[in-house]
Model the fold of this input.
Amino acid sequence: MPADDKKLPQERAATDKAVADFLGKVAAAPKPMPSGAVRGRLIIALDATASREPTWHRACQIQAEMFEVTASLGGLEVQLAYYRGFGEFEATAWVADARGLARQMTGVACLAGNTQILRVLRHALAETARRKVNALVFVGDCMEEDVDRLCQAAGELGLKGVPCFMFQEGGDPIARQAFQQIARLTGGAWCPFDAGSADQLRDLLRAVAVFAAGGRAALVDHGKRRGGLALRLTHQMGGGR
Done:
């Protein structure tokens, strides 16, 4: 039986509301700068410590859809960043196709280690200093760092106009508080997702990809065409002005 089917109705409703609220915050985030022929740029940062392996595999299967839904908006460039093991942090080259990103993701094995979210935020700052980054997605389940230092880096990203969209797997309260603060300081959003639901992760990644490529108007149009959670977002926005 799928994990979602085991939930009580009120639990499913709470999760749906959290995801819908998140998508609403995506729509309200600062718009990417007009790019003309320049592709939107999105950093996807993943906790690749041992507990994250199932979600890593789901993200590998889902990632191609981000390129599909943004093709008509001029395309998307994605960079994969991850940490794992004993202080290991890696960021790949920017890619503009699903095959390239898939090759990079499938070559990574998850290893036990501590979180390095500060390195993720500082990396995003360095990248946007070279060329504008339209959004950062982070997927993780815990936080083991100095929250004040995280907030300092998040505030700097906010000043640069790089919203962070923090996807939290599980219910760790320390991680939740930190992720929410990072999201608030950058003008992004925090959202929990169900470890057993690939559909939730798929919808969230597609939504942020569309935002990174085309801004709020593109996200509204995406919701009208694709339905589901994205369609609920358009209702929250008053029908897509």
